[in-house]
Specification:
The structure holds two protein chains of two kinds.
Chain A (H helix, E strand, L loop, with lengths): L1 E5 L3 H13 L3 E5 L2 H9 L5 E5 L7 H10 L6 E5 L4 H9 L4 E4 L4 H13 L9 E4 L2 E4 L4 E4 L2 E3 L3 H12 L4 E3 H8 L10 H13 L8 E4 L3 E4 L2
Parallel strand pairs in A: 1-2, 1-3, 3-4, 4-5
Antiparallel strand pairs in A: 6-7, 7-8, 8-9, 10-12, 11-12
Helix pairs in contact in A: 1-5, 2-3
Chain B lengths: L1 H68 L7 E6 L5 E4 L12 E6 L10 E8 L5 E7 L1 H51 L15 H51 L5 H31 L7 E4 H18 L3 E6 L4 E4 L1 H18 L5 E8 L5 E8 L31 H11 L3 E6 L4 E8 L4 H12 L1
Parallel strand pairs in B: 7-9
Antiparallel strand pairs in B: 1-2, 1-5, 3-4, 4-5, 6-8, 9-10, 10-12, 11-12
Helix pairs in contact in B: 1-2, 3-4, 4-7, 5-6, 6-7
Classes of the chains: A alpha/beta, B alpha+beta.
Keywords (chain A): DNA-binding, Phosphoprotein
InterPro entries (chain A): CheY-like_superfamily, OmpR/PhoB-type_DNA-bd, Sig_transdc_resp-reg_receiver, WalR-like, WH-like_DNA-bd_sf
Protein name (chain A): Two-component system OmpR family response regulator
């Protein structure tokens, strides 16, 4: 994946770029808004990481300028401005995801990867399939290897989110945000227990597990 | 506050009443002795006149004069002249009063049947040359009437005076207490988190105005200090988070470099966990600072509590189940409060989190949404059957980084309840800890959106 980082803090940039490269991505960076916009408009990137507080512009200016020219490269906004209003502002003005600084590197990379693969989104998909696991989103039924599995509504939502992002790492924060709509981290690691329960139903009676733990980052559903 | 006005009015009434009584007594005494003196002088002058007649015209002349004098009926002037044997010779009295001794002044009562009779009188007795005795006196009635008039006048003027003084006292103290009441009300508002409020000044520069000015100056300073402290804790939390986050990132990179399993990997893994704990702590501090400072920044919206609680309880259900804890949610009312959904959810999650942590295996946790004890309010209670918190610690556990001795072995940073407290205050709600026998019951009382209490509470908390 080819990623452009538009961020003026050299230390943060170095770490992000290094992390992305470690995960096998091709990462470039610019520290100036105008140059960043020019590069981004070249259309060669899969994902843009844009800081909001840049020396010349608010990062949102770049995002809006890009969208105005019909460029729909996924943008992850990275900002120290973390209030709900800031997030909403970022997401309504062309951002695809919003991450508050400081954040964990694993979290950032997981989100970037999900954004990058969403380029060909399963628009209004009614069936999801991961290996021998099948989800019928309309009938709200789950089958694995032909066997029907009963899930509680919240477990279904959790599995659906994992399945929609199959092959990608989803972090605990992402699960909390998307499955429970909570924008905070609970003190106890409740997600771990939810995943353990889901494993009981999805993986226990089958030879190959589908839910994988990615240490230090989160979980990944893959065959 | 009314009581002060009433008390001052009563004190005024008492003091004025006492002085009115004193003044009345003095006036009465003075009038009395003045009237007696007047009577005595009149009688003395009369006696002298009669003696002149006696000297000039003898006893016959005196008798003549006395007859002339007593011709007027019902005269208050009393005369009697008796001969040596005590038989009255002239005058309008039947005789000398009983028990008259030597010459001199005496007080007596007129005989029955005479001009109404038995009226108090004073007089003087003089023994004349040939054994005749002459009494000249006067009924006190006329003088007493005058005295009664004075007493009556005094009574009415003092009554009016008392009424005026009580009313005046009430009026003056009400004026003062009203201004004190304003100061009180605004102080209350400030205590409730509306630190920008100031006490209005009056233009007259009196003591109360100076009190207001001093209080306002004090508030100005406190506000500055608070803002400084808040900025400081926010800065610390934020500025420490950034390098810590970089540290965590580098550890993550190190982890991916150390490919094979081994002690280095484990150590790095542990370091990441520690870094996460620190980051979490700073995050919690930031949330608290934001909730405390967030009065103006965050717009309020209507938040239905039941769905938020359902999600919170659902989130913790598996953890509770692992400890064989029965976790129930009972929604008796569909409460809507005005507030910040995420902060409310976080506060409620912290309460359930604590309950799960401190309830032993096989215990139970009941989350209830019900009408509050006060009308127009909704109570959310989280009751557990855990170890509880001794009542003397209830206040203290709301502070930051407070962990009771027995809780040190459980994971946590001592910020959970501090955040709950900050969020509760932000919503104009109240937090109470109760003994669940056994266990702890935390009660959050929210003013309902739309209720009067709500308007007042949010004005208090959101206005600042």
């Amino acid at each position: 994946m080819k990623i452009l980082v538009i961020e003026d803090d050299p230390k943060a940039t170095a770490l992000v770029v290094k992390g992305l490269r470690e995960h096998g991505h091709d990462a470039d960076h610019v520290d100036d808004g105008a140059a960043g916009l020019k590069r981004a408009q070249s259309g060669q990137y899969d994902v843009l990481i844009v800081d909001r507080r840049l020396p010349s512009h608010d990062g949102m200016v770049i995002v809006r300028a890009l969208r105005a020219t019909g460029n729909d490269t996924p943008v992850l906004i990275l900002s120290a401005l973390g209030s709900l209003e800031d997030r909403l502002y970022g997401l309504r003005n062309g951002g695809d995801d919003y991450l508050t600084k400081p954040c964990s590197l694993g979290e950032l990379i997981a989100r970037v990867e999900i954004l990058g693969r969403r380029r060909s989104p399963p628009a209004e998909e009614t069936r999801l399939k991961v290996g021998d696991l099948e989800m019928d989103l309309l009938a709200r039924k789950v089958r694995r290897a032909g066997r029907s599995i009963e899930l509680h509504p919240r477990e279904f939502k959790l599995l659906e989110y994992l399945a929609r992002n199959a092959g990608n790492v989803v972090t605990r924060t992402m699960l909390l945000e998307n499955v429970w709509e909570f924008h905070f981290d609970p003190q106890t690691n409740v997600i771990e227990v939810h995943i353990a329960r889901l494993r009981q139903k999805i993986d226990k009676d089958f030879p190959a597990p589908l839910i994988h733990t990615v240490r230090g980052s989160g979980y990944c559903l893959r065959a | 506050m009314r009581t002060v006005a009433v008390r001052v009015a009563l004190v005024c009434l008492g003091l004025f009443g006492l002085s009115a009584l004193t003044v009345s007594a003095v006036i009465d005494r003075v009038t009395d002795s003045f009237l007696n003196r007047q009577a005595e002088e009149t009688i003395g002058a009369e006696l002298d006149g009669l003696l002149v007649h006696l000297r000039q015209g003898g006893m016959d002349k005196l008798v003549q004069v006395l007859r002339d004098r007593t011709r007027v009926p019902r005269s208050p002037d009393l005369f009697v002249l008796t001969n040596a044997r005590g038989v009255p010779v002239a005058g309008n009295l039947p005789g000398l009063p009983e028990g008259v001794g030597a010459d001199g002044w005496l007080a007596f009562r007129t005989a029955e049947g005479e001009a109404g009779g038995r009226a108090p009188a004073v007089g003087v007795v003089r023994t004349l040359a040939d054994g005749h005795r002459l009494l000249v006196g006067t009924e006190l009635g006329q003088w007493q009437g005058f005295r009664t008039q004075i007493v009556r006048a005094l009574f009415w003027s003092f009554t009016v005076l008392l009424a005026i003084s009580a009313f005046g006292g009430w009026l003056v103290s009400r004026h003062v207490t009203r201004r004190l009441e304003v100061i009180n009300r605004i102080t209350r508002t400030i205590i409730d988190g509306h630190l920008h409020a100031r006490i209005p000044r009056s233009p007259n520069g009196d003591e109360l105005d100076r009190l207001a000015a001093n209080l306002n100056d004090m508030l100005e300073q406190i506000e500055g200090l608070m803002a400084g402290l808040r900025d400081l804790s926010e800065d610390i939390a934020h500025d420490l988070r950034t390098p810590l986050n970089r540290l965590r990132g580098q550890l993550e990179l190190a982890l991916s470099e150390a490919r094979e399993e081994g002690p280095v990997r484990d150590l790095v893994q542990e370091a990441i966990v520690e870094a996460d704990r620190l980051l979490e702590m700073f995050g919690a501090l930031l949330s608290i600072a934001k909730a405390q400072a967030g009065y103006q920044q965050m717009p309020l919206s209507a938040v239905a509590l039941p769905p938020v609680l359902r999600r919170v309880v659902e989130l913790y259900e598996p953890v509770a189940e692992e400890k064989h804890i029965t976790l129930t949610l009972r929604i008796a009312v569909s409460a809507v409060v005005r507030g910040h959904e995420q902060l409310l959810a976080q506060a409620l999650a912290n309460l359930v989190d604590n309950a799960v942590k401190y309830t032993p295996d096989g215990g139970r946790i009941d989350v209830v949404v019900a009408s509050g004890q006060e009308p127009g309010s909704t109570d959310v209670t989280v009751a557990d059957s855990g170890i509880g918190i001794p009542s003397q610690e209830h206040e203290r556990v709301l502070g930051r980084f407070i962990r009771l001795d027995w809780s040190r072995s459980t994971p946590g940073n001592g910020l959970g309840l501090a955040l709950v407290d900050a969020v509760v205050r932000l919503h104009g709600a109240r937090l109470a800890m109760e003994d669940n026998q056994p266990g702890l019951r935390v009660r959050l009382s929210f003013p309902d959106a739309g209720s009067q209490g709500f308007e007042a509470a949010v004005e208090r908390s959101a206005g600042g």
